[in-house]
Model the fold of this input.
Amino acid sequence: MGSENSTYEKFKTIAESCVNPCAIMRVVKNPDDTINEMRIFATNEKFSYTGQPIEGELYTNFIPDNPEFDDQCIKAAFEGKRFHTYVDSTTMIGGWSENLILPLVSDEEGIGYCQFIYEVTDSMDPGKFSSINPIIAGIVIQSCLTLRNGTDFKKNVNEVIEDLREFTDSLSASLITIDNERKTAKVLSQSIRSGSIAAEQLMSNVPYDISQSWEKLIGPGFCFVIRDKGDIDKVDECSPEWAKLLRAEDAQSLCMVPLKQRNEIIGYLMVTNFDVTKVNEITEAMKILSLFISSEIANNQFLKRLEWLTSIDMLTGVRNRAVMNRIVDELAARMKYQKAPFGVAFCAMNGLKSLNDKEGHDAGNEILAKAGELLRDVFDENDIFRSAGEEFAIVIENIDEEEFSRKIELLRKLGSDPDGVFFAIGYVADAETGDVRKALREAYKQMQEEKKNFYDKFPEKKIW
Done:
C-alpha cells in the first residue's frame, strides 16, 4: 500500500506541474498481455471539467472510448513511445485538441503509466501540422498535388485512393460519398490489391441505412478502428447488418475516417486488412487527408451544381438545347471511330398551342412541367433534352433496341391523354451504322407524321 501511495504522490506531482490539463493513465495488463483496464490514476485540477473527483475511475467514464487513444496509451506505457496528435474534437469539447502522450517509468509488473496532456483551440491551426511524421507529410503533400493536378476530378481521386492503399499496405482503400438529401451512399473511388476480390464484394455496394450507422460508431472522435475479428463485436451494437457483412467477408482490420464539410459528414475514407502495428501512423495520415479530400469534394460538388444550373431547363427539369447539341456532337464524333448501340427519339406535345390560346400560358406551362416529369419517370434525366418550345429529344448511348422500344412504349402509355399530356413520338434504335444525325432526322420525321395523325383525329386541338 505504501508503494502505491508513493507512486501516486510521484505522479500526482508530475500532473500538477503541468500548465495544461493533464492526467496520468494507469494501464493494467492480463497475464496473456491483453489489456485488463485503463484508469485515470492522477490528474491536475484543470483536467476535470466539472471539478468532480475522477481519479481512480475508468477513463471511458469521462473520455469517449477511442481505439487510437487506447493504442497510444498502451504503447507509451509499455513500449516507451511518445505521441503528438492534432484532433478535431469540436463535437466533443468544442474545439481542436492538440494531444501529447508521454511514457512514464514503472517498476510494477504488468502495470504501465503514461502522461496525457491536451490543449484546446477554437479552430484548426495549420501550423500544427509542421510537426507531423515526415512519412505522413510525404503522402499528404503528394495527395494534395495530385488533387490539384488538372481538371479531371475522378482521375485525381482515383490516384489518391490508390496511393493511400499502397501507403497503408491494405487490401482495399475506398472513398464513399454520402448524399443525405437523396439518401444514397456511393463508392466514388476504390483501390483493391491485385488478385483480391473480398474487398470488392465488401464495399462494392453500400446501403444507405448501413452508412448512417457509421457516424454512431465513430462517435465524438475522428475515426473508427477494428484491429481484429473480436472488435467486430463493437459493430453489432450499432449496425448488426454491417457486422454480419464484415464477418462474411472475413474482415481482419478496418480504419474509417469521416469526411466533413461545415460539420456535416459528406463521406468516409476507409481501408481494410492493413498492418495493425502501424495503426497510429495510418489513422494520422487518413485524418489529415480527410481534410483536403473533403475540401476537394465540396468544391467539385459546387462546380457540378453550377454546371447543372446552366444546363437545365428550369420549367421542365430536363437538360436544355445547348447541352443537347454538345452531347450529339460528342456522340457523333465517337461513333466515327467506335460504333456502339444507341437510341434517339423526338417527343412533341400535341395540343399545347391550343391549350395556351384557350386557357393561357400558365396552363400550358403546367402541362409542360408534367411532360418533363413523365419523361423523367421513364428515362434518366441526363438523357432528356428540351429541344424546342413543345418538343423534347432523347439521346441514349449503349442501349439495345428491345430495351429502348420498351421504354418508348411505356412513354406512349403514360403520355396518351388528349386533354393533358399527349406525345407524338418518333424514335430510332441503331446498333450498326453509328450515324447519329441520320437517326435524329428519321426520328423527327416519324414524330411529325404522328403529330399529323393526332390532329386528324382531334382537329379541335389544332390552331389554324
